Amino acid sequence: MVLKIYDVATAAQTILNRAHALDMDIPDGLQQSITRLFGEPLTPEQVVRRILADVRQRGDAAVSDWTARIDGLQLESLFVPPSDISAGAGRIDPDLYEAMHTAAQRIRLFHECQPLPNWTTNKLGGTLGQRATPIRRVGVYVPGGTAPLPSSLLMSVIPAQVAGVAEIVVATPPGKGGTAVPDVILAAAHICGIQKIITVGGAQAIAALAFGTESVPRVDKIVGAGNLFVTLAKREVYGLVGIDGLYGPTETVVVADETADPAWVAADLLAQAEHDVLATAILFTPSRALAEAVQQEVGRQLEQLSRPEIIVQALAGQGGIVLTSSVEEACALASEFAAEHTCIATADPAQYQHLIPNAGGLFIGERSFEVLGDYVAGPSHVMPTSGTARFASPLNVLDFVKITSLIALDDETSAALAPLAARLAHAEGLTAHANAAERRG
Prior knowledge:
Blueprint: E1 5-7, H1 8-13, H2 28-38, H3 44-58, H4 60-71, H5 82-91, H6 94-112, E2 119-121, E3 127-134, E4 137-141, H7 150-163, E5 167-171, H8 183-192, E6 197-198, H9 202-211, E7 221-223, H10 228-237, E8 242-243, E9 251-256, H11 262-273, E10 280-285, H12 288-302, H13 308-318, E11 320-323, H14 327-337, E12 341-345, E13 361-364, H15 370-375, E14 401-408, H16 411-427, H17 431-438
Parallel strand pairs: 1-11, 4-5, 4-7, 5-6, 7-8, 9-10, 9-12, 10-11, 12-13
Antiparallel strand pairs: 2-3, 3-14
Helix pairs in contact: 3-4, 3-9, 3-10, 4-9, 5-8, 6-7, 6-8, 7-8, 9-10, 11-12, 16-17
């Protein structure tokens, strides 16, 4: 069977005991590519630091050189001409364009519902509060890899636009074989009104956005998922610029009971597994009958799909079915795992959602399946992975604003608080602080 069935104890020692993507062993093929490209067996961290340092020093020339060496594309300009963006949009199938347009509308409407935390109070003497201000300039990384992902552009750009970000620069790698940016990416950009796209991927894209070059403006924050080198580069530049998170391979967990449709559950697990050989797809269920039916369905449906090799590797490495004692235990395990996507496929799914506080996205009921979240439901599909849903959130409007505290105390309150501040300052040995307070007491 492609998908194994585990008891809870065995699963805890195997598929549920995942490492963060940055801690995983480097595949031999990748290590060989690094050695071939650099002439020595560098680690991915060393590769990223070398590229970042070069771009910081040489700017556009370094970005172009690394794009030629890694992606095989000789760039005349880092930026896609605006006329090419509209032309690319005109070349895609009209039905596809309409689907993307509808997705964009739903994403925008969803994020427009998110309130920004502007508030003031007079309860503390004078006026205190906070102000949310849009970040001025944001870089959005749109991965390419084995397939172009226009949905990632929509899911990252639109929340930034709703937040009021004035300038957005999109970075996306060349198409397969070192070709130009795929038309579907250009169409997504056109729908969003994006005019600045650099045909650059990998660590050199993150470096250009973080440091700025002769032609690429330095941004204030970088968002979007990418491969190992993109993630390592984001980690390196954090502090110089903001980042949204460090994303690992994608994950889906399904919590199901005996009423779930095994064909639908299998389809959802397969959909996740086709992303990447490191993708995770796990079913938690107390029903052995459902587990065995899903096993059979996975085998049947796999024969009809276009990426079976990737799926088989993903399911063998990180996939599985975990037999639990109850739906409640399944929920507890799912929450502990804190997956990027958690789907509840039970007779009454709403009653279990409170049992799963840790999830990037909670898909409640079999009609609210995860693939809809990938494309058209509304929330951004850029979600926390590798267990970071314990403390992190999906990409949203708040990622694109910064909070400023507002302090406007009245004279009476200021005078009353000054001696308290002075007392605390003396306790800390900060006499200049105390002096500033005492002069106003």
